[in-house]
Amino acid sequence: MSTSNDQLQQSTTTTSSSSQDSPSSPPQQTTTTEISKPIRQNIAKKQTNTTLSTSGKRIQKELAEITLDPPPNCSAGPKGDNLYEWFSTIFGPAGSVYESGIFYLDIHFSHDYPFKPPKVTFKTRIYHCNVNSQGAICLDILKDNWSPALTISKVLLSICSLMTDPNPNDPLVGSIATQYLTNREEHDRIAKEWTKRFAQ
């Protein structure tokens, strides 16, 4: 019995000593240091995402609106998964030289939208003094007169209006503007011919 008690006491002493001798690591300090860096990175990432998503939220809102209530003779929406790249269709306004034509346009939104205007270009060739051969459009609201209050629906309506009433005083193609002012009959003939050739 004495031997067993001595062994038990020795075992207890050894365990206690072993427990005391093992260095105690400060888990709280290490954990705080390890966690704080990812937290800071996560917060910074969230702040960046918030900044970038401002334009995304606005575009999503406009997409919902234009899907439910599209402007007359127009449709538009993303090309695929990229919310910033859209494709639009405009049917030539009735009574204009572009009537019965179907015109396709590309729309590009920057991450600064709506504080910067979208870039809109014709993909279908069109005989128009305010549209050049690359499809660029000379329209005041796409340049200096842009306002964050404007939407892509209003832009498409303005393009339709420009197709009905060109602005020869601010042309991209001077020769077509001159022809529009001096020989309207010939201008209209060529515009209709182009519509049949490229937009039908």
Whole-number total of structural domains: 1
Q: How much helix, percentage-wise, in residues?
A: 40-55%
Radius of gyration from the CA trace?
Answer: 34 Å
Structural class by secondary-structure content: alpha+beta
DSSP summary: helix tally = 5
Element order, helices and strands? HHEEEEHHH
CATH superfamily: Ubiquitin Conjugating Enzyme
Name of the CATH architecture: Roll
Principal-axis shape: globular
Strand order of the largest sheet: 1-2-3-4
Q: Return the CATH class.
A: Alpha Beta
Number of strands: 4
Largest sheet composition: 4 strands, antiparallel
Query: The CATH topology, please?
Result: Ubiquitin Conjugating Enzyme
Mean pLDDT score, rounded? 84
Low-confidence stretches: 2-25, 29-36, 43-48
Instruction: Work out the strand percent.
Output: 5-15%
* Terminal-residue CA separation: 109 Å
